[in-house]
């Protein structure tokens, strides 16, 4: 008999996310990885600022809520004082790739032995649909109402590509949760990102292409299609760095 | 290391922090406090601790937040412009009720200012070191000895009341050398922190360290609870020094390095028969209001002396309900007044009293 159970380390509370948002799927994958590796009792999660701010209510491990963009620095403070514990951050694109870029880059280059779950949905969800650092050229948001023009608003940032150049990064992979197959692949990647930490390999970051049907103004299904048709060509899925693989770097 | 040594003020803070059980230091270089980071970098590996140079002041204070949230004693240090950067993190640390120690070895401001000693962050330290309703426990050492002993006080008070504590020093105290006596070898009986987020171990419910309350009533409740602790700090932790106040017509109020110049000026004035004394606040928050109020019953004039444009004057006026005149003398931008300069000011005030 196959039972679709709630992962033990995912709290039994209603999530606040909008219908069709893929945060819920990613939360579940993180919880499944924590369960599979039996590390909930030793794990400290760092919630960030943005739609996932309430992540501290959704995981059963100890949680800390960090200031906007500062989760990797807070994670550094926890991990360096408790090197045998497991520390992960859960951050959106505004948090990780705009206001917290310095904290992200330097945690990566130091090779902090932590796991970063990075949700890229190309928009600011919580504040209601403003331009993100990852908003695509031409994409309409409330602060790029005529479409993002690189000559005015600048270019989007490709985080996995950039971070894969840094010595301290052990593993950087971009995944998606738009299809069951991709969800399974994301599950594997996220678990590997935690396993790397257990094995003291250095920093692992999993970038998840995610949806925001509410602020994209799409149905959940159309939003998944937009991830495939529009986001993936700009943000190709794949492994950008993996020191555990033989010649596995992209 | 023996217990009595000749040291720079900055080094005394660093050594005292380690002896008080702070094995985690996160910082960023800025004059005139860099010796703290350098000392930590040298000593920490030898005592099994960690000195980590962060990419910014912002990162450093957030590393302290992570360390404090997971239950250990942690410290960061900086000088004025760097403290402004830390303000965000300090506010979150208050909102999360985390104990830690922040050192500000002040230099002249605003902006990049200068690198000479100043006290122009008094307002920032005592009134608004970050957004929101908040206080820090603020101590103002006046000697290298106090740089060491008040570091221990700062850690103990921080842990006891779950509040960040600030050591508000200045470039002169940071750079000068004096003998210092470390009264403890190595503190080991550190307080237990059952609220810390360091892994529940399957033995307790999960801990959440958080400053977000979207429900206004809940947020108000959390602030009121914190202010009950602030009340306790006001009741229990005020520290000050009085010197020749008993018969004084003129009472000087000054803290930190400035109080020492004032004491020299007091000797010069006393030699000329002028009755002048000093109240030196050692805690700037909570403020020694009662001591000032008592002195105002007999004194005829209060003179505030600071290395700024008069940031403590209002606290003095409020403390004494404006009972007697309060005047101000200060130098700013990194300039220190001489004892003779202060004597002239005391003589001027004394002349007015006897008219």
What does this structure look like?
The complex is a heterodimer of chains A (250) and B (355). By secondary structure, chain A is an alpha/beta fold. Chain A has helices at 23-36, 55-58, 71-81, 93-99, 101-110, 150-153, 159-163, 180-198, 213-216, 220-234; strands at residues 43-47, 62-65, 86-92, 115-120, 169-176, 203-209, 238-242. In chain A, strands 2-1-3-4-6-5-7 form a seven-stranded mixed beta sheet, sandwiched between helices. In chain A, β1, α2 (55-58) and β2 form a beta-alpha-beta unit. Chain B has two domains: 4-188 and 211-236, 3-Layer(aba) Sandwich (Rossmann fold); 241-353, 3-Layer(aba) Sandwich (Rossmann fold). Chain B has helices at residues 9-19, 34-43, 57-69, 80-95, 122-127, 144-161, 171-175, 216-236, 256-271, 289-295, 313-319, 339-353; strands at residues 4-8, 24-27, 50-53, 74-78, 100-106, 137-139, 164-170, 177-181, 208-209, 240-243, 250-253, 276-281, 283-285, 301-306, 326-330. In chain B, the strands form three sheets. Chain B has a seven-stranded mixed beta sheet with strand order 3-2-4-5-7-6-13, sandwiched between helices. A five-stranded mixed beta sheet of chain B has the order 10-12-11-14-15, with helices on both faces. In chain B, strands 1-8 form a two-stranded antiparallel sheet. The A-B interface holds A 40-44, 46-47, 53, 56-57, 59-67, 70, 73-82, 85-86, 102-103, 105-106 and B 24, 26, 50, 52, 54-56, 58-60, 62-70, 72, 74, 88-89, 92, 96, 197-203, 206-212.
